[in-house]
Amino acid sequence: MNNIWLQEWGRLWAKRKLLVIILLIAIGCGLKEIFDLFIYATNFESLYEGVFDRFLIHYVFLPLTIVAGSVMTQYRLGDSFICQKRSVLYYQTCFQNIMTTLIIWLGWSLVSIVLVLIRFQLHVPVEFFIANVLGFIYLLLVQLLFVSGSLGIYFLLNNKVVSVMTMLIINIGIFEASMRGVSTLIYDFSTLGGVSVRVGQLLILISLITILNLLTYWLVLKREF
After folding, report:
1. Which partner from 56, 73, 109, 139 sits 20 to 30 angstroms from 98, CA to CA?
2. Is the pLDDT reported for residue 176 higher than 60?
3. Mean pLDDT of 70-83
4. Under a CB-based contact definition with an 8 Å cutoff, are residues 22 and 94 in contact?
5. CB-based contact 121:43 (threshold 8 Å)
6. Residue 68's Cα: distance from chain center in Å?
7. Domain limits of the chain?
8. Number of Cβ atoms within 10 Å of the Cβ of 143
9. What pTM does this model have?
């Protein structure tokens, strides 16, 4: 099993130039918050919404996550006939997806954290700090939900382009619904909320991700590729 993880790291490292470009785009998303945090924000709510800009996340961050997850991941369906272990194929693919998603998330969140610390001169109010930590976790789970959905559609239809386009269209539909005042869960992280409500939302997202991955795992084990 350790050899498998080393192989997957090797495959990601082979695409390190592309990975650096993806990371720089994620960092650029974080740097965009300079204007919101230092110029336009006047209270905690506007500061929070400056960090979690739903427009930036919808138009750049989530599409970057979906596309990068597909581009960086090598879907080697033929491997299942070589190793005769469908579970290995599933774990390999999930590992690549998760690592790519984490790199994008870390690039954006670390820049955002540094900007928040500078904005408050290292004296960040506790309630604002907790809200931001939960917001960062929330966004990571949203990313994982989208890449899990993309992975499931790919293993269902065996078409990378269709899986990416489907998730991009779903993202657009959910965003438009949220802009019309519909509580969509996916974009609820962009507004400041109570701790108990936020924790409940995080648990729902974790449940959805788990269900999606269990369905995908079952599909990988049962489907003929």
Report:
1. 56
2. yes
3. 62
4. no
5. no
6. 10
7. 2-222
8. 25
9. 0.86
